[in-house]
Amino acid sequence: MVKLWMFMACGGAVQHITPPPVFPSSETRTPSAALALYLRGQLHLNQAEWDEAEAVFQEAMLLDPKSPWLYLALSDVAEGKGELTEAHQFAQQAKEAGGGEAAMVRIEALSTLTEDKP
Question: Architecture of 32-116 per CATH?
Answer without folding.
Answer: Alpha Horseshoe (1.25)
